[in-house]
């Protein structure tokens, strides 16, 4: 009875609305498809929703402190599942799924949750001084890099990158200084600043300005010569090896996605087709949309992967600006609620989990919706609760179950 009294019913209600909306829009996106598998996607999503909601509610009833004690075993189970995918995984273009009887699961989706829980356990055991020390940061980085490396081998670069999304928000919440976070992130910024196709001739000047400006700022704020010299060397090296990374690290389809983002009109009927059709679908929806089942881009199958990657395009076309705004408002509420729970809970471990889950949801929403409007590359990351995919839905509802559990025990130290 205590758990029922303490349950966050607003969070639960918003989640149920999102799940119901997702099943409805998947039905609409798949209604006119010639593929039986696509036509029944909404039915599979609904069945998975019932299963995932049961799991989420079961998590609420986990006794207090149990989650902390099983954080490390959960992490290793997640790693074992990723290793199992490399050995026995199935998939059309990449081995990303494991078949368990009648179910087909994508372990990388569930491993996101176990990694966040393990990170929260690690950081909650560190004080502020330890978090700001190199050893503390390297420990958190290793916990994140191991699953990233395993997922990149599948290959699934989009999902692999999403594992890094909760790392820095959780480090900040655990007490890492903002300047130190900037120092750690600066090599990545150097790569971006030196990427010639992005800046079209201005890359050398932007790269030089960033290296000089960041190095001077760090030296003025910290005054440590060894750190200043090291930072400059690392940033220069990161920028100079961008060409090597482009030629040897990225796969051909990943290069095509990046170049298509920069200029989708260069190959309208090829690599740019998805982004162009998605923007047409969203733009043609107008204020209130064309109506349920009436989206022309979806109906005539101009929009690829409408029920999965581009489900937000279906929302924009059929429900218009109003419908898209409602979806964004629901996501904003879920993320803001997760941050609120992380701020109010008295347990450091639980607080870090909530921040990690909020970061994960934010990253997925930003990348997927950005992809549909042409400001982010096509990565294949699903839109939480809306895109068709049982593993993604299960992972996101487990995240909600954890938030409900944390809210229930928010007064416990």
Task: Give a nutshell description of this structure.
By secondary structure, the chain is mainly α.
Number of separate helices: 22
Regions with little confidence, pLDDT below 50 for 5+ residues: none
Shape: globular
Please give the alpha-carbon distance between the first and last residues.
21 Å
Residues in helix, %: over 70%
- Please tell me the overall pLDDT: 87
User: What number of domains?
Assistant: 1
Strand ordering within the main sheet: 1-2
Strand content: under 5%
Write down the Rg: 22 Å
Structural class: mainly alpha
**Total DSSP E strands:** 2
Largest sheet: 2 strands, antiparallel
Order of helices and strands: HHHHHHEEHHHHHHHHHHHHHHHH
Characterise the protein shown here.
The protein has 413 residues and is an all-alpha fold. The protein has 22 helices and two strands. It has helices at 2-6, 9-30, 36-39, 41-60, 66-69, 71-88, 107-124, 128-131, 134-152, 157-162, 167-174, 178-193, 196-199, 203-222, 225-240, 242-248, 252-262, 273-284, 296-299, 311-344, 348-372, 390-408, and strands spanning 98-100, 103-105. A two-stranded antiparallel sheet has the order 1-2. Strand 1 and strand 2 form a beta hairpin. The model has no long low-confidence stretch (mean pLDDT 87).
